[in-house]
Amino acid sequence: MMLVKQPSFIISLLFCFAMFSCASDDDYIPTSPVVFDITEVPYQTLSEYNFFDGELKELNPTYGVIPYDLNSALFTDYAKKKRFVWMPDNVSAQYVNDYSSLDFPIGTVLIKNFYYNNVQPSNTTRIIETRLMINKTEGWIFANYIWNEDQTEATFSLEGGLTDVEWIQNGETKNITYKIPPESECFTCHKIAAVPMPIGPKPQNLNKDYAFSDGVANQLHKLQEFGYLDGGIPNDINTTINWEDDSQPINLRMRSYVDVNCAHCHSEYAHCDYRPVRFAFNENDDEINLGVCVEPEEQFGGLTYIVSPGNIDRSMLYFRLSTTLAQRRMPLLGRTLAHEEAVVMVEEWINSLTTICR
């Protein structure tokens, strides 16, 4: 075999290419393509942030946009949700305690998309809105984005709005006029002592496995691994459960449900802190805090206790959760329909109580 001598400049060039290739494989550090200028956000359109790859409506997160879920979710007229979190480089959230939101660094964006499947007449998925909470230097701000009919873009609006939705769920056709909340309603729920705060991303709600694109992992561990959560997370987190899991004790299901659906108002320094109940998971292991044998401030229709053991017809809590009357229903905001499956669970819980009111 004849060996052909290559010119020295070609050999040098090939050597450089080889060295560059090795260096890029070993030393390459991926960066998030998210576009974020804290002095300019909120942007006018959702696409400007570059949170998602490909078609916007597919909600495929770009690098650095981490999906997450909650053990039990807030009911919003049966809307489904997809949640994500993004943070700038070289910062991470801190653990406070099991029942408080993670202490997120400045620049964090929490992304929550509200959508319905099987929307009629085309039987497709329709995203209604995307809500952002952005942690700016002055504190958390709200930025809501309303999706267009073509599902190609969502536009910034703090005015809210109404839109009709018809969809099929479990073989049944449902119709609502969905309310996209104005900024003032966001603040009503997301506040502690008049300071805007996230509700869902607490260790007690995040302590679960999630099917990430690279495999199933505990969400808190995944955030730590990615650098979005500092160390120091305890191994014995007092964790909520999925209230829909009927293999779990009925009391634990009830406590998890009211924590995520009611505690953001019925807690100290929250919107309804004057009412004689405390629904937060770290407090509601006490029957009194759940309203058992507690007289309501306003009595009507024979509803003599917030919760009357064994008697839903005398239980204010059951009435508030099952009614669709705007002036009576609870939660105050976010629903027009009764959460039928939860109402069944609440009835089971009330009928399981054996406390005798005195």
What does this protein structure show overall?
The chain has 358 residues and is of the alpha+beta class. It folds into 2 domains: 46-226, no CATH class; 245-358, no CATH class. 20% of the residues lie in helices and 22% in strands. The longest helix has 20 residues, at 8-27. The radius of gyration is 25 Å and the shape is globular.
From the structure above, extract its key features.
358 residues; alpha+beta; 2 domains; 6-stranded antiparallel sheet; two-stranded antiparallel sheet; 7 helices; disordered N terminus; signal; Multihaem_cyt_sf; Repeat protein (TIGR03806 family)
In short:
This is Repeat protein (TIGR03806 family). With 358 residues, the chain is α+β, with helices and mostly antiparallel strands.
What is the strand content?
A: 15-25%
Order of helices and strands: HEEEEEEEEEEHEEHEEHHHH
How does the major sheet shape up? 6 strands, antiparallel
Q: How many β-strands, per DSSP?
A: 14
Helix content: 10-25%
| Number of separate helices | 7
Structural class call reads: alpha+beta
Radius of gyration: 25 Å
Mean pLDDT across every amino acid position: 89
Number of domains: 2
Q: Tell me, what's the shape?
A: globular
What is the strand and helix layout of this fold?
Blueprint: H1 8-27, E1 52-53, E2 60-61, E3 66-68, E4 80-86, E5 109-119, E6 124-136, E7 139-147, E8 154-156, E9 161-169, E10 172-180, H2 183-189, E11 191-192, E12 195-196, H3 203-206, E13 209-212, E14 215-218, H4 219-226, H5 250-262, H6 316-322, H7 340-352
Antiparallel strand pairs: 1-2, 3-4, 4-5, 5-6, 6-7, 7-8, 9-10, 11-12, 13-14
